[in-house]
Amino acid sequence: MARTREVGTLWIGGSLSWMEQLCLKSFVDQGQTITLFSYEDIPNVPDGVIRRDGRDILDTDDFIKYEKKDSFALFADYFRIHMIQQNPGMIWVDTDVYCHRPMDYDSDYVLGFELPGEKRVNNAVLGLPVGSPILTDMLAFMQDRHAIPPFLKQSQQDDYRAAAAAGTPVHVSQQPWGVWGPLMVTHFAHKHKILNKVQPLEAFYPIPFPDRLKFMRRTAVVQGLLSPKTTALHLWASNKRELGLRHGGLPPEGSYMADLLVQHNIDPASAPIKGRGRHVFDAGLVDAVPKGAVQRFADIGGTGQAVALAAWGKWLCPIDLIDVDHKGRWMETPSDWVSAYRQFLTEHGVPFDQIRVVAKPDDLLPAQLVSNLNGFGDVNKINPLGDMLDLCLAPAGFLLTDIRKGSGGYPYLKKRGTTAQLSSRNDAGTDVHRVLLTANGTAKAEAEPPEPEENWAEIATGLAGKDGFYRDGGDHAMLFIKRSDTLVVTFDNLDIAMEKREDKRPWGFAFIEKQGWSMLGVTAAGWTWFRDPWVYKQFDELKKKGFFKKFKRVVFYGASMGGYGACAFAAACPGADVVAISPQSTLDKKLVPFETRYKTAWDRDFTGKYGDAAKVSSKAGRVTLIYDPYEPLDSGHVNRFTAKNVVKLRAPLMGHRLGSSLQQMGILSSVTLGALNGTLSEADFYQKLRARKTFARYQKELFNRAIDKGHPELARRMGRWVLTRGDNRHIRKAMEEM
Fold first, then answer.
1. Alpha-helical runs (H) found in 465-508
2. N or C terminus of the chain: which is more exposed, having fewer CB within 10 Å?
């Protein structure tokens, strides 16, 4: 006989977002009793939900987490098994499980397959008989927090046993996601042969994890996947990342989730999704502002919609939209973003008369909270920000802003208050910090004398010290720093080092210093390709005086123009190894008529013993060239290197800026280290390059290539694979248009 069951769940982490509110209220509205356990007060629990202290189940302050993801899901896994054991007949549901219709299962076994194939069992919905062998086994397994799970791969089990034998057993918080969750439940369901009691996929997971983004599509798409067997829907909390990053923490308009919120009378704007694990979304930034009233919020440039709405929800403050262009100039007619921004706010409950467009400096009013996300100091130059802040940021107010490393943003803000870094991201090889500025208590920052410009000659002389040397040849210079009997000779554009790098050091300087190697840095004042008799003379003299013979190992190293320099001037030290990333062989149009770039250097003389890098590098030791074979110009240069000492390492679809790509993938250091110390094999390189599968630039190029080659279905399959594991803006936009 069917019976309507009581369900229970747990929440740790402060206020609920609209997703948890929706799921909890869905059970109430369906007439199914639901109990919410917690260890602290939760201010926005929907009416009708029964509240109980979590200490009724587990009296503890040890809220164990998956440390790698900063997630209390591990404690929830532990709690749910004890809740089921102590509450006969109660069914556990995650707080992201929506009640499609009441769960009236007669059996105490309530669990479901989460993927096609009926092998893997999820625990988002879980009911088990009290005292059953499977429940007893799971409770016993979780008692040892250093247990070696028998369901992990054998190689991983062997690693854990080795660690335990060495006296450093692996704690459960460092083990794989789901070790007390779906992995454990699946293992014991198979062991105790209860698969015949497991509900089919459509019961709770008709939209499985790989397809979870479908919940953000229109209602008809989701409803077409449900069946009469569906009772609950796992909305997948992992969707919070997409919702937070792409939709301001709110459900997309017209989506299934948005329709459910209307059906259950939940206002998402009052409880936006603010974060996921360690990642704080824009809507969550208001929580970084110290307690206190904000009487006015201002957004410079229109990039903080989610922050504005969250500020309204928290303080009911007027919102100013400061309409300036990327150079800080006031707009004569409203920018395109103004109308869409205002519409977004009014659609989510902000009164029209509480939104003010500021289009001239006289209309600026002091605001206690100002947003400048992805704006001045990041994608735009920092200078125009100062005058606006003096007028629109209230004394002791707060500025949320992004600062790109090397932009000069920190010194600029230092004059106006104190900064605290909230988060950091890597954008095209450069760190961008999200910062909270607490302004000084005065209305306008006092002027400070400009900092003196740093001079490369002074910097280099200091770095050389008494055992090194610095030589200045006008357009080129040489810096030698003595450390060990390994010498790395680098080639770089000094203009980039001084203007784009915060440490104002040549390319690879910090890496070489960290290894304790000696360094000979050759720098050019611009795009010269080192074609200068002064440079030739320096290398001739170093060779003649036996400079290179003082070192046991010498490696020439550079990228692009620097890669050309490394290959060409290695001729001064026969037998030295070369590591070059995306190098040119020459710019002599007679030899490389295909080269259409770098016109600024076409008229330079590329003849002589240091001229044609493809030819003169044949006297070097091992010449390692790392390049993208699908970049036709780069490939054309590399194809000219035909000597037996050349090793070509292909990095398909990574582009000419290969060094930047490898850095963003997190493998540049290990690749470079192996190449410079001579241990990098082709197998090692290609093993490391597998990291490109999750690299946005590679994904974009591979997707575009499938489209260009006339394989749209292949592109769709790849796009689905990418978007179910994270985000790629280019692919997401393209998929929407396909």
1. 494-500
2. N
